Amino acid sequence: MGDNRPPMEQGEHLTQNQGDDDAGGHRGQQDSDLGARSTESAQASSDGPDAEIAGPARGGAPDQRRRKSPRGDGRNARGRRPGRAGGRRPSAWKGYSPEQLAARAAAVPAIVYPEELPVSARREEIATAIAEHQVVIVAGETGSGKTTQLPKICLELGRGVTGMIGHTQPRRIAARSVAERIASELGTPIGPGGVVGYQVRFTEEVGENTLVKLMTDGILLAEIQSDPQLRRYDTIIVDEAHERSLNIDFILGYLARLLPQRPDLKVIITSATIDSERFAEHFGREQIGDRGQPFTVPAPVIEVSGRTYPVEVRYRPLAPDDVEPDSHDTGGTSADASSEIRPGPAAPGELSEAELEALTSPDPAVRAAARARREAIRSDAGSTALSLRNQGARGKGRSRAGSTGTGAGSSSGAGEPKDQVTGILDAVDELLGEPSGDILIFLAGERDIRDTEAALIDHLGARYTPDGRSRTPGAIEVVPLYSRLSAAEQHRVFEAHQVRRIVLATNVAETSLTVPGIRYVIDPGLARISRYSNRTKVQRLPIEPVSRASANQRAGRCGRVADGIAIRLYSQADFEARPEYTEPEILRTSLASVILQMAALGLGAVEDFPFLDAPDSRQVRSGLQLLTEIGAIEPAGAASARSDDAPDRGRRGPRLTEIGRRLARLPIDPRLGRMLLEAGELGCVGEVMVIVAALSIQDVRERPADKQEASDALHRRFADPTSDFLTYLNLWRYLRTQSRELSGSAFRRMCRAEFLHYLRVREWQDVHAQLRQLARPLGLDAAPVELPTARSIRAATEALEPGSHAAQIANGGVAAAVVALGRSADTPDADAIHRSLLVGLLSNVGNWDERRREYAGARGTRFTIWPGSGLRRKTYDWVMTAELVETSRLFARTVAKVDSRWIEQVADRAGLTRHVFGEPYWSTRQGAAMVHEKVLLYGMTLVADRPATLASVGTDSARQVAREMFIRSGLVEGGWHARHGFVERNRELIEELQDVERRRREHGLLADDAALFDFYDDRIPEEVTSAAAFDAWWKEQRRTTPDLLDFTRELLLPGGGDASGFPDTWVQGDLTLGLDYVFEPGHPEDGVSVQVPVEVLGRLTPEGFDWLVPGMRAELCVATIRALPKRVRRQLVPAPDVGAQVWAQIAQEFPTPPGASCPEVPFEEAFSRVVLRLKGVEITEEDWAEAAERLPDHLAMGFAALDARGRVIGRGRDLVALQQRLSGKTEAAVRSVVRGALAQAMAEAQERQGAQGGKSGRKGRKKKGGRPAAAQRPGGAAGTAGGSGAGAEAGTGAGAGLEERQGLTDWPRGVPGLGDPDASTIPASVESAGRAGLVVRGYPALVANGARSADLRILPDAAAQLGAHGAGVTALALARTALPTARVTSRWSAQESLILAASPYRSTEALVEDMQVAAGRMVAGRWAASASGTPLTEVRTREVFKSLVGVMRDELEDEVYRVARYAAAALKAAREVERVVGEHTSLTLLNTLQEVREHAAALVPEGFITATPPEHLAHLERYLRALVMRVEKAASSPSAASQDAALAFQVSQAREVVDKARAKAASLPADPQREALLEEARWMVEELRVSLFAQTLGTSRKVSLQRITRLCAQVS
Length: 1612
Fold this sequence. Notes:
Blueprint: H1 43-46, H2 98-106, H3 118-121, H4 123-132, E1 135-140, H5 146-156, E2 164-169, H6 172-186, E3 196-200, E4 203-205, E5 212-216, H7 217-226, E6 233-238, H8 246-258, E7 266-271, H9 276-282, E8 285-288, E9 294-297, E10 301-304, E11 311-315, H10 353-359, H11 364-382, H12 384-394, H13 420-432, E12 438-442, H14 446-460, E13 476-481, H15 487-492, E14 500-505, E15 518-523, E16 526-528, E17 531-532, E18 539-540, E19 543-545, H16 548-555, E20 564-568, H17 572-577, H18 592-601, H19 617-629, H20 658-663, H21 670-682, H22 685-695, H23 708-715, H24 724-741, H25 744-753, H26 758-775, H27 790-799, H28 805-808, H29 812-823, H30 830-838, E21 845-849, E22 854-857, E23 862-865, E24 878-886, E25 890-897, H31 900-910, E26 914-917, E27 921-923, E28 928-937, E29 940-949, H32 956-972, H33 981-1000, H34 1009-1019, H35 1027-1037, H36 1049-1052, E30 1065-1068, E31 1071-1078, E32 1087-1093, H37 1110-1123, H38 1126-1129, H39 1135-1149, H40 1163-1175, H41 1181-1190, E33 1198-1202, E34 1208-1212, H42 1215-1221, H43 1223-1252, E35 1280-1281, E36 1301-1304, E37 1326-1329, ...
Parallel strand pairs: 1-7, 1-10, 2-5, 2-6, 3-5, 6-7, 11-20, 12-14, 12-15, 13-14, 15-20, 18-24, 23-25, 32-33
Antiparallel strand pairs: 3-4, 8-9, 16-19, 17-18, 21-22, 21-24, 22-23, 24-25, 26-28, 27-28, 28-29, 30-31, 31-32, 33-34, 35-36, 36-39, 37-38, 38-39
Helix pairs in contact: 4-5, 5-6, 7-8, 12-13, 18-19, 21-22, 21-30, 22-24, 22-26, 24-29, 27-29, 32-34, 37-39, 37-41, 39-40, 44-47, 44-48, 46-48, 47-48, 48-49, 48-52, 49-52, 52-54, 53-54, 53-55, 54-55
């Protein structure tokens, strides 16, 4: 069962596995190795350490050589430096000397052939073919002996003397094992002392007398660099050619081209499953026939049939549809070769991690307890299934190849499908019934191995032994075999063992590698196939069915020690439907490295190279694209600067750049090499070289399945939260520090304890050393990476928190020190390192998509970070990854955070970005034409919406448009805030001349933008496209021609312009107001408007503004004609001509007085008079009203009220409405101006007093309270100060100022600003200087704020003063003479008291107060009308006021009693009205009663005594009695009710006339006389009611509807 030979390849490890579903099985490989391969895909080129880094698939530079001891144990002394041969290109091989040739010929040993091998029986035929032909193809079954016997046949023919026999193998372990086997059969030592040697990566066991050299195909490719003719060899044997890896395909193509130049060179192609005819045609010789036509003679093919032990193939399909009948009908359904098959775990294999760990524990007690628990579970579920299965397996009859069956012993019923694990268990049971022998099971990946291992452990039960040392009969050991296992676990498979084994392997065991003791094989027929996506540019690893050749290779792994059995878990029909041979790797991988090395070797284009299978054009384009991306080749179509760069000038192909030529000399992936070159520019070569070396090998960190948590915890010490690349650097520092401090054995023990693969660590160091040697000729001197000092390690150790995990684990201080060193300023900037790496990884960047919670990568890919990465829990905006591998999903491995700006810079430099520009726009801030730029890289948005100057786009058209936009938007339209003098001068001139257009209301007077553009275009040079460029040019230009860019009036106003009819100001009285012109038809401000400071708004009157300005009066005349009613308008046609005549006549008859802005008569009057005289047409007031509604808005003067800061606070074309709306603001503004003037006057007075000196100078200073001493109110003055005011000296119309007071109850005295020595005379007005020289005039008045108090206030206009002062005087007089309430009520009779008690007033006090107010008004009115009295509005002195008070004191009491009698009579009549209305309920009187009730309530509301004018108070009783008589009369008969309605209609007509008059008055300035007329008309309506409804009561005056109408007509 075991192999008696010594364990092979101790210290070696297997090739890189295909990866697991979570991307755990693959890591940073080179360009041609992005993802591992299946059996069909050349394990040598795909699998990390076993594949050479040299050659087209790796980078193609000479391999670093290392001499080894004859032991071949693969180990070197610690600290030993590798040789320097790889650092420079070796010289051409000159051949052997005669002495050397003689020695080599004498060294040929005696050759003996094992007769049991089928090849031995055909050796003479093979020897003849080799002697007579240059190329021979030997095809034979696995185990036929061709690998070991062909070199011996060549030696027997004399080959290997003048040159070595080169024998290539796809894997290092295969090269070493075959070398040992051949040396053993020849009886010679291996290495320099014998005739058989080998060379693999970093190990060369070849001497001067070596005749047969075993090597990997990568080594042979590396030697092509230094020895293009392969002069060192006279024979080349290419073994396992069926794998068709990149290396093999390139070797075959290169040899096909080389053989005509080397007629002495023999080539032997061999494999067990080779397409012989295809290879024969490829190496065929072209000859000329008898008729001169060329034809090809294929190379000879020798088929060696048979093998040492036969292999029986059994088919056990999992799906019932695959089961074939006993007949030869093969029409069953075959498996879909393109589908990805994911087997699910079987029920028996569902083990938890804890159970699996217990079952595999090295402790026998733990394993026994776990098995007991599992046995109990199986017993509960039914133990008969296992026995039935075993019985079925033992009873199954044997059949030879091609036999069919349903898989005896299946636990499933016939016709039911089985999952893969169940099928494997059935097959194992079947094979366990066969003679003893190990079983090899092929699985697609690590996860399948783990699932199957768990199922087997559970299935085998007590027979399972975890360590292979059990002496129990029938014990079985389950051993996994895949690349990510530690070296010890891998070599365990090759060790001698005592118990039967089941080996669970990926396809690493498929070819070239013979696992000892294997007699049986189980083949599910699946493998992970590496496929490169030309669209996404990533390597995918889907699970696919293997080809027939691969299936035969798997079957050939058994039967090496005895008759073998291979069970295939698919049908024979499925097998026969599969492709016969493996799809070549060149058809499914990236070709960048191949193209680079072919260009360096001058081999021409890939399309012209004699590959066995021409690569897909898409893959060629993809490789060219990658090389262009990193700057290794010139872009397509670019002319080469030097023709001697390509040795073979006759061949077409890509031309290398200087970067490409340097990259071709580095034995690594072109992207990794590009990183190194960039690091040389950024000063971080040493650090990047460490990272590149790490990416070139398999990860040195191990994660055993049973100790994942422990290993992850130890590895986490070196993790960087932003970069897995920096994690490699931290780990490197740690390893170098530890190797410096520890001995060799201690260092190995440390690696083992901390789950670091020692051999991979050594390999990492070797690759780094090799790269340093190779980089030196390129000028890349890599300084050693800084390591922590002993002091820093002690400090880091002391800084660890006691009891923490970092403090408890071994070497925690060292790990902390190296991490701290990486973050310190003593090491190169991490940004520089990442920028160097980014140059080679532009295709592998991604942007975080928050919505989908994954990264969006290049060309539409989407990926997530591999779970083993230190960034797996991070969500950085942009990341780069060393590789993208697709298993169950697309994973990013070795990830780092990057800045999008770095990506853009690198991509721009490589010419890979695509810039998309939006529509240009003008930026005032930048002073340039701008565009929104979108930067794309491989479909990724690097910049979404970045502003950029239009000129930076780089095209001539863009620069031209940018210049035009600068001139048009920046200079012509003023969209640039320039500080140059010419800009301000031009702007002022334009604004000045634009006003001509606005005033004349004509477009086109000013030069248009096109003329201004031409002006600038002629003077500004072409290179000026922005404000910055203009500033640079103008700085020099203005020294010679400072007025070069100044506009002239002739340029801007070519036709001239007269604006004399459009003045700047409007004069009304003593006010001179500014005018503003707006020419925007349809705009509310269109036309001319007067700019009125709000403090003088109240003094303005509408008179004269209807004339507009002189320049618009001709248009006004024409527009007026068109606005008149049609009956008038039709008599004044044509309107333009008649309007011109009317205006000419108006201008002649109604000239504007000097100093005025308009004629003295209203425009309507002048227009009417002229039209009547010229045309005989009379225009009525109604006509004018209609014309006013139809007149265009711009022909009505507008008014804009301005506050103290010049801001518009109100605007409108109705001056009166504007005054009413802003009355409060107007009064406040006037008071503010007057207060300011008073404060200034008082300050000046104080200054004068201070100048005089003495104590008197200090009297005017402010007291503690802050009020000036002169402003302190004397004790006799009532009220409180309302703020400081202004006025002139005592006297009407002027004063020194006036201070307002509030709450006065007596005549003010001692108030600053009042006249007379006692300061008690109130001036009629006060004047102050306002804005722009305007005189602001205030009108002091006493304003009543209650029945017995008043305020001294400054009012904005005389009308307000006239309406308020009299009431205020009366209120102060009443305050001096008011009677007590009890005194007033004492004179009422009982009946009067009863009636007045029912009044609408809230209290008797309110009633008496209202009576006294009304009586006071009556007394004051009579006094003002008397000969000795004075009008109340003119009472401004204290003496006159005292006279009024004396009269009121004498007459008030009697007048109050008289008012009380009037009120009692009115209230009595009102009660009678209520009684009469309540007695009548007829529906015919409903309207009458409702109107009477409402009217009576309106006559006697609360406060009716003062609300009724004094002269009408005595008539209230009569008005109310008339209402009683109206009701009684209307109720007398039905006809009376109808007559009442007719009379009520007349009253409504009268009320409508009065209402219209009030509405008209509301639009006119305030006028006390107008208000008196309206009040008289209102009471005439009451007299009209009496005359209509109660004629017997009589009226106080003659009244009628016509009289009322005539009275209201006076309102104007």
